[in-house]
Design brief:
Keywords: Oxidoreductase. InterPro entries: Epimerase_deHydtase, NAD(P)-bd_dom_sf, NAD(P)_dehydrat-like. By secondary structure, the chain is an alpha/beta fold. It has one domain: 3-Layer(aba) Sandwich (Rossmann fold), CATH 3.40.50.720. Helix content is 34%, strand content 16%. Helix 3 runs parallel beside helix 5. The longest helix has 22 residues. 39% of the residues are buried.
């Protein structure tokens, strides 16, 4: 009997990522979940009774020398969830992690022959990062993009919400540009307006 398909989930110890892992396991997939060093033991502990789960360490998904050859071995699809929140690091650091992180995942996916990638994004990418358009009426669709730039992100005085929205907008735009240049890549983005519900308590912290 053949094994179930293996899916890589980045940011597996986070609020969204942990639920993605659990849903994939319940659907019968094997899951390789990535996290930073301090989270690996927690991930393994929580999913210890799941033979179809394994944890791998990726400390900086945006690192220029990141090599995912071993991590992507045997993988059929990727769900890229990992992204820094606004306000938790300097904007220049967060932007590099968000932008280069998604590019690293896509480049190495294509290199490894993994052509199915889901990128978790946000509806904020269709708005300007100040979110004012959300309350102005009108129709917002998948053809709309928020107006921001690297220079805007690096300005002083931005709120955490503005910074996070800009991270997501710039990284998703770059992801679609990459996909246009690599038609063999089957890219999908999920753009929820808000994510709520119970976290997995054991993975909080």
């Amino acid at each position: 009997m053949s094994q179930p398909e293996l899916v890589l989930v980045t940011g597996a110890s986070g609020y969204v990522g942990s639920h993605v892992v659990r849903a994939l396991l319940q659907a019968g997939y094997r899951v390789r979940g990535s996290g930073r060093g301090g989270k690996i033991a927690t991930l393994r502990g929580y999913f210890k009774d799941q033979p179809n789960f394994e944890a791998v360490q990726i400390d900086d998904v945006g690192a220029p020398d990141l090599d995912l050859t071993a991590v992507l071995d045997g993988v059929s699809a990727i769900v890229h969830v990992a992204c820094p929140l606004g306000g938790r690091s300097l904007p220049a650091v967060g932007l590099r992690t968000a932008l280069e992180g998604s590019q690293n995942i896509l480049k190495q996916a294509v290199k490894a022959g993994v052509f199915k990638v889901v990128l978790t994004s946000t509806s904020a990418t269709a708005l300007n990062p100040d979110q004012k358009r959300a309350f102005a009426g009108g129709i917002i669709c998948d053809k709309d993009w928020g107006k921001t730039s690297i220079e805007d992100v690096l300005k002083e005085g931005n709120t955490s919400l503005y910074t996070y929205s800009a991270y997501k907008t710039l990284s998703e735009q770059a992801a679609w540009k990459f996909a246009e240049e690599h038609p063999e890549l089957d890219l999908a983005t999920i753009n929820p307006p808000f994510v709520y519900g119970d976290p997995i308590p054991e993975l909080l912290g």
